[in-house]
Amino acid sequence: MIPFSIWISAQTGTAISMEIRNEPNQANPNIIEILLVLKNNESKHFKGKVEVRTPKGFRTISDSNSEIELNPGQNLFIPIKILTSNTIISGKADLTFTITDEKNQQVVKKSLSYVVMENNNMKITTENPVVYMGTYKD
């Protein structure tokens, strides 16, 4: 009989944890305010990038490819603002957030489903410019 042993890491989960918080913006409904909460769960320093991917009709106002550094056990809060255009189609849109390490390997990837409400606003314009009358005989 040959002695055989397997070592299994006691750590479960990934080195970096990410939480996505959608903060409602009452002042301007065309801006989506998101707060990414990152935590380094390892006992070593982490250096990498956060990439934000948005579908057509959305534009990231904040840096969409920012570099991050986290010490062991450190939390990092990254505010992200995304602008929605008036031409986007109503329905569900996925905003994707990806963390990659220095070797450009994916560490964490999460998505936030954002529901675009139907816009029923109507803009009415006249074909002829306004005609001003000075007296009733004009």
- As a whole number of angstroms, the C-alpha radius of gyration is 25 Å
- Give the termini separation: 114 Å
Give the averaged pLDDT, no decimals: 80
The helix count comes to: 0
Residue share in helix:
under 10%
The shape, in one word, is elongated
Structural class: mainly beta
Note poorly predicted spans: 1-13
Description:
With 138 residues, this protein is mainly β. The chain has strands at residues 16-23, 31-40, 46-53, 58-60, 65-70, 75-84, 91-101, 106-116. The strands form 2 sheets. A 4-stranded antiparallel beta sheet has the order 1-2-6-4, with no helix packed on it. The chain has a 4-stranded antiparallel beta sheet with strand order 5-3-7-8, with no helix packed on it. The protein is elongated. 12% of the residues are buried.
Keyword list:
single chain; 138 residues; 4-stranded antiparallel β-sheet; disordered N terminus
Topology (elements, then pairings):
Elements: E1 16-23, E2 31-40, E3 46-53, E4 58-60, E5 65-70, E6 75-84, E7 91-101, E8 106-116
Antiparallel strand pairs: 1-2, 2-6, 3-5, 3-7, 4-6, 7-8
Task: Write a brief structural summary.
With 138 residues, the chain is mainly beta.
